[in-house]
Design brief:
The complex is a heterotrimer of chains A (about 350), B (about 325) and C (about 325). Chain B is mainly alpha-helical and about 325 residues long. Chain B has helices spanning about 10-40, 45-70, 80-95, 100-125, 130-150, 160-170, 175-195, 195-205, 210-215, 220-245, 255-265, 275-295, 305-330; strands at about 170, 175. In chain B, strands 1-2 form a two-stranded antiparallel ribbon. Chain C is mostly helical. Chain C folds into two domains: about 1-285, ABC transporter involved in vitamin B12 uptake, BtuC (Orthogonal Bundle); about 295-335, no CATH class. Chain C is about 75% helix and about 0% strand. Chain C starts with a helix and ends with a helix. Classes of the chains: A alpha/beta (about 350), B mainly alpha (about 325), C mainly alpha (about 325). Chains A and B meet through strand 7, helix 7, helix 8 and helix 9 of A and helix 2, helix 6, helix 10 and helix 12 of B.
């Protein structure tokens, strides 16, 4: 009986092997001789935003003749990201491109990677400064903060109460945005019409974001705008406004992929969202990694490198490379974008 | 449970002891409500109550399904993955505009029923302990969702408008989903109390051995319970997809814990055989009230977990103490 | 020999599966069979493995505990607090052992004294303890630790590639093997899981045994916290969130009967090894998480179904029919 079991399960596992190889992430099939091996590890793979980043990255890798593997956990879980980073390191890549869920938790494996000579480039969400060579930031934190407030102004030019939804207290970019936005509403005359009243966390989860947004609107009846740095929470907030019937009274804005807020812009319930082109962010980070590997990118403030069709970029303080090209979506221009 | 002389006062009271549980859940709910009403001026108004009910409605449906299984002294921890798989399949199909409304809903029910049936087969006929079986199917169903989805999400814009509108619709000011949830609880409570096929669920749960010697095919009853659970959760998956709009492959994650919490809070015994769905409804309402109340009171979000967890422990304790007291008062037998 | 095989059926089964898994993982990825890689990735199962041993004792007595990872989270934030107050590790460690024991004790009291159903109650304490961890750790948690706190989780033995935590894990395993199979206490745990009433009538204190199991569980969570802190350098309320299902999988796959009374520590250790081998191999081949989970889930269900085949009705009917055919000639007598 036991022999039968062992054989059966062996068959199952072999079947699993065949089956699983078919669903392995892209890298294996894109293997090219020569060129560097680049691994991209997003916060989690379940998010369209990161998929789009990966598409741009794949494009860049193809242009450069590098091998590209996109892999990570499908949940936004710190321990799982650490594990997937360890698995990546064990495969001896030339460079790791990573977006960190928690800037400190992923630092130990990344430091170890750097000690082994692997180049580490963070993108979208930074890690501890000493755990990576470069950080490709989509927008300077201040730039993003200003753009979001500008969008809020488009929604509610007369100002009012605003609330923030972030992923978690340890997401560096979200928290930086909120901090700067709050400051700006006090110091910059253009934004003084706004009064921040609350910050809530929704862990990049749609259902949670909707619940949080609904409860926020209940708690603050005069709320005017809900601003969200998370590409999951911004469309969810728009949905919540629609659900609770406050279209036109409350607005949602922040970071969102055009495909997820297209319908809200078209039916007039929302007015403005923004993002940077995630594909180009991915594209840029691959070029940065490649340039770091072949030595054309030095880790010094003011160093420049060429990033394919994006032309030249300059390194800022602490190895930060700012992509800095925001796109604001309005009902007028939303049709131009298809990602 | 001792059988009393039919018609005696003692018998009627011990019958109603079960109902008493519901009363105690309702009582906890009211107390909680009052507490929050004090802590925030925005809490106690009709609109907010509607919001709480709205947020609770999906959980009520899922928890009702879970209750069916728990009543048979089993568990189903795969409900989150059933929501995910059903919701995702529905979203994809709806976005492709292949079917109309009724077909989509039936499809959701069918998918849920099949997934639930697989659970039931493993537990009842495969003799796999329910935690193990549903732990396994939790991973299996989630994995399937992922493979079908390739990690891609279905944006809300792609869903047909009637789905989105339906999820938000209100009837006479009451959210439609709340009406659905209440209706389901009422219908199922009636079924559980009056239809013999469903009453057997109680029998199997309170004493599987006795049920078997009584001639009940407990396998079939357990299978039925799992199918009911799957069907209800499938419906919830459909509603969830309509509510959330943007569907990702992570839809419904961790719902099993919430469903269990609502079931337990609602006075359904994990030993099987006792409890009713009205209690579960209030259990879900309690959880939703806590979430809402905390945001309104401006309390940091992490107090939520502590309060919910403590509420569960408190509810079970009170529940057990009351039940024991009643039993000791009305039982002639000494231990 | 035959006795041995019959008694340890499940464990031998897992050994066979382990061998197949090793072969499969090596086939999946060329990076798998590397001593350094193996040692390094072994760190991934240490803290869950330690908790699995604690959970096993609780399940053996016929109860359940969903709150162990939450106890771990409380202990990590308490450690972080001590670290920030510059308290030496030698004092902080006993402190979290006490904390873990107390939380385990509370579980035990709720289950044995108040006679509450353990699944439901620990569902509640799971949330309550985690909330407690958040309250102590605040939303942000801690990330900077005194070096000595990180030692266990971060270091290796001398200059080798053997992680210190692996040695601690093996030591723990040895302790549990002794505890469960060679002490009176261990035997009583199994007895309670098998037939608590009989134990009570023969003078044993069922409540004490069950409570002790819960306290031991709490201590394993505290130990896991010490490992966790060094491994991840982070102490936050959501540490080890969602890990409980994986721990239960490890215990059940190890042949421990979910209703209590049966199982071996060896089986649990083997199943942890097995799960780790699968995960490691699949991870190195960049197989997506859900697919990994799916394969493990399939394995879990199918293996239990297959091992139950002899008892299933259908199989029994086939066997009866077969026996009837074979013994037909006897009826003629």
């Amino acid at each position: 009986m036991k022999k039968l079991v062992a054989v059966l399960v062996g068959v199952l596992l072999s079947a699993g092997l065949v089956f699983a190889s078919g669903t392995t992430e892209s890298g294996a099939s894109a293997a090219k001789k020569g060129g560097y091996r680049l691994f991209m590890n997003p916060k989690f793979t379940g998010l369209a935003y990161f998929e789009v980043c990966a598409n741009g990255a794949k494009e860049a890798a193809a242009e450069l003749g590098d091998t590209f593997v996109y892999t990570g956990s499908e949940q936004a879980d710190v321990q799982l990201q650490v594990q997937s980073l360890q698995n990546i390191i064990a495969q001896k890549p030339d460079a790791i491109i990573v977006s960190a869920i928690d800037l400190n938790a992923v630092a130990p494996p990344l430091r170890q990677a750097m000690a082994q000579g692997i180049k580490v480039v963070s993108y979208d969400a930074d890690t501890a400064t000493d755990a990576r060579d470069f950080f490709v930031n989509q927008m300077s934190y201040e730039g993003a903060a200003r753009t979001m407030l500008d969008c809020a102004l488009l929604d509610a030019p007369q100002g009012g109460e605003i609330a923030f939804i972030a992923a978690s207290p340890t997401s560096p970019n979200h928290m930086a945005h909120i901090r700067i936005m709050t400051e700006l509403t006090k110091t910059d005359p253009k934004y003084q019409v706004f009064k921040p009243v609350a910050t809530q966390f929704a862990a990049d989860d749609e259902a949670k974001s909707i619940e949080v947004a609904v409860n926020l609107m209940q708690a603050y009846p005069n709320l005017k705008v809900i601003i969200s740095s998370s590409a999951v929470s911004a469309p969810a907030a728009a949905r919540a406004i629609e659900t609770i019937g406050k279209v036109g009274k409350v607005f949602a804005t922040g970071v969102a992929l055009p495909s997820s807020i297209k319908s809200y812009l078209k039916d007039g319930s929302q007015k403005a969202f923004f993002i940077w082109d995630p594909a180009m962010l991915g594209y840029l980070s691959v070029y940065a990694a490649h340039a770091a590997l072949d030595g054309s990118l030095k880790k010094a403030e003011g160093a420049t490198f060429s990033a394919g069709k994006l032309k030249e970029f300059t390194v800022g303080k602490d190895g930060e490379i700012v992509y800095g090209r925001p796109l604001i979506f309005t009902p007028e221009n939303i049709d131009q974008y298809n990602f | 449970m001792r059988t009393e002389k039919p018609g005696s006062i003692r018998e009627r009271i011990s019958q109603n002891a079960l109902q008493f549980r519901v009363v105690s859940v309702f009582f906890s709910f009211v107390v909680l409500f009052a507490l929050f009403a004090f802590s925030s001026k925005n809490f106690l108004n009709v609109q907010n109550v509607k919001v709480i009910a709205f947020n609770a409605s999906l959980l009520i449906i899922v928890a009702s399904g879970e209750a069916f299984v728990v009543l048979t002294r089993n568990l189903d921890v795969s409900v989150g993955s059933i929501i995910g798989l059903t919701g995702y399949l529905i979203a994809k199909t709806a976005a492709a505009h292949l079917f109309g409304g009724v077909e989509l809903i039936l499809m959701a029910l069918l998918i849920g029923a099949i997934l639930g049936a697989l659970n039931g087969l493993a537990v009842a006929y495969g003799r796999v302990p329910s935690i193990v079986a549903t732990l396994g199917t939790l991973s299996i169903y989630r994995g399937i969702t992922y493979i079908i989805g390739h990690g891609i999400e279905v944006p809300s814009g792609a869903l047909p408008r009637w789905m989105i509108r339906g999820a938000d619709a209100t009837v006479l000011g009451v959210p439609f989903v709340v009406i659905i949830a209440v209706f389901i609880v009422a219908l199922l409570t009636y079924l559980l109390r009056n239809v013999p096929l469903f009453r057997r669920i109680y029998a199997v749960g309170s004493s599987p051995a006795a049920a078997v010697s009584y001639g009940l095919r407990s396998n079939r009853v357990v299978l039925l319970a799992y199918i009911m659970c799957g069907t209800l959760v499938g419906l919830a998956g459909f509603l969830y997809a309509s509510r959330v709009g943007t569907i990702t492959v992570n839809l419904g994650r961790d719902w099993e814990m919430m469903a269990l919490a609502a079931v337990v809070l609602g006075g359904v015994s994990t030993m099987g055989g006792s409890g009713n769905l009205v209690g579960v409804l209030f259990g879900a309402m309690i959880l939703s009230t806590i979430d809402n109340g905390l945001v309104l009171a401006g309390a940091p979000e992490f107090w939520r977990m502590f309060i919910q967890g403590s509420a569960i422990v408190a509810a079970i304790t009170v529940d057990a103490l009351i039940e024991r007291r009643i039993r000791s008062v009305f039982s002639h037998r000494k231990a | 020999m035959k006795q041995f095989v019959r008694r340890y059926r499940w464990e031998l089964f897992i050994v066979a599966m382990l061998a197949i898994a090793v072969i499969w993982s090596s086939g999946l990825s060329p990076f798998y069979l590397d001593a350094q890689q193996l040692l390094y990735s072994s760190r991934n199962f240490v803290f869950t493995g330690i908790m699995a041993m604690g959970l096993m004792m609780i399940i053996v007595t016929g109860e359940m505990d969903l709150s162990l990872p939450s106890i771990l989270a409380v202990c990590t934030v308490v450690l972080a607090k001590f670290s920030s107050w510059n308290i030496p590790l030698a004092l902080a460690l006993p402190a979290i052992v006490v904390v873990g024991s107390l939380l385990g004790l509370l579980n035990g009291v709720l289950v044995t004294r108040l006679k509450l159903p353990s699944l439901a109650v620990t569902l509640g304490t799971m949330g309550a303890y985690r909330g407690l961890a958040f309250i102590i750790g605040s939303e942000v948690g801690y990330t900077s630790f005194n070096g000595q706190y990180l030692w266990l989780g971060a270091s290796n033995i001398g200059k080798s590639a053997i992680p210190t935590m692996l040695v601690v894990y093996l030591f723990c395993a040895a302790v549990f093997v002794a505890l469960a199979h060679f002490t009176t206490f261990g035997r009583r745990c199994f007895a309670v899981g098998n037939n608590a009433v009989a134990v009570r009538y023969s003078g044993g204190n069922v409540e004490l045994i069950k409570t002790a199991a819960y306290v031991i569980g709490g201590i394993t969570a505290a130990l896991g916290a010490w490992v966790f802190v060094g491994q991840f350098g982070s102490a936050r309320g959501d540490n080890a969130n969602g890990v409980i299902l994986g721990v239960i999988t490890a215990v059940v796959l190890g042949g421990v009967d979910i209703n209590g009374g049966k199982g071996t520590v060896g089986g649990v250790l083997l199943s942890i090894l097995f799960l780790w081998t699968l995960r490691n191999g699949m991870g190195l081949a960049n197989i997506a998480g859900p697919v990994e989970q799916l394969i493990i889930g399939l394995f879990l269900v199918i293996s239990v179904v297959i091992s139950n085949l002899p008892e299933m009705e259908i199989v029994r009917r086939i066997r009866v029919r077969r026996e009837r055919v074979v013994s037909a000639p006897d009826k003629l007598r």
